[in-house]
Amino acid sequence: MVDIRSLCVLCGSRDGADPACPEAAVELGRLMAERGIRLVYGGGSIGLMGIIADTVIKAGGEVVGVIPDFLIRYEIGHKRLTDLMVTDSMHDRKRRMFEMADAFVVLPGGLGTLDETFEIITWKQLRLHDSPIVILDVNGYWEPLTELIHATVAGGFADPGVVDLFSVARTPAEVFQSLAAAPAPKEEVLTSHL
Questions:
Q1: Domain range for residue 168?
Q2: What pLDDT was estimated at residue 191?
Q3: What angle do CA 47, 55, 103 make, to 5 degrees?
Q4: Residue 1 pLDDT
Q5: With 0-12 CB in 10 A as exposed, 13-18 as middle and 19+ as buried, what is 56?
Q6: Burial, 154: exposed, middle or buried (Cβ in 10 Å; 0-12, 13-18, 19+)?
Q7: pTM of the full predicted structure?
Q8: Is residue 60 part of a domain?
Q9: In sequence order, what DSSP letters do the residues of 99-147 get, joined into one string?
Q10: Which of 30, 107, 160, 162 is the most exposed place for a label (fewest CB within 10 A)?
Q11: What pLDDT is stored for residue 188 in this prediction?
Q12: Would residue 77 count as lying in a domain?
């Protein structure tokens, strides 16, 4: 198992339609704080981003937000974090979050969360990192994503091993089990011309 001291959580700037999504953000934040794991996230104070940050802060944990300058007014940059880093671009935001994280968890979210998720999985495929990635599939929210990834394999555009670049958890407690059991990517995934 990777020694996880800093966890990057990718998630939405909205609460979502399913009340289980904010509940999962609260539970994940609580479990992170209990374990002394620092939260690295997108820096917003609204949606699931704000919920998980507030939970970790309330429990006495450390929270680092990373937000591009132009999004501060839209995502309402969080004012009570351990540290709020302001970047020039979305790309720089992702790079900085990546550099500070030992592992990644994906909660439900929208297009921005999808962008971040695909990029972090692709970076793992390209050997830019070997950190665990766990998708927290709250009430089946991410089933279409995992089906799409399986479709790329069935269509001959990806090695079957790409599905091992991440794991899927159903509950926040399972996230930590998945992080502990995350396998290293297989060599053929990394060398099959992507």
A1: 6-181
A2: 56
A3: 85
A4: 52
A5: buried
A6: exposed
A7: 0.92
A8: yes
A9: HH-SEEEE-S--HHHHHHHHHHHHHHHTTS----EEEE-GGGTTHHHHH
A10: 160
A11: 60
A12: yes
Q: Which of 80, 85, 78 is nearest to 45 (CA)?
A: 78
* Tens digits of residue pLDDT in 125-137: 998 899 999 999 9
> Which pair of tokens denotes residue 165?
């670049």
Q: What residue ranges of the chain have pLDDT lower than 70?
A: 1-2, 73, 75, 184-194
- State both tokens at 156: 């001959």
Residue 140 amino acid letter: G
Please identify which residue in the block is written with the tokens 């921005």.
112
- Give the per-residue pLDDT at 185: 65
Which CATH number characterizes residue 110's domain? 3.40.50.450
Number of domains in the chain: 1
- For residue 74 the two structure tokens come to 């839209």
What share of the chain in percent tops pLDDT 90?
Answer: 80
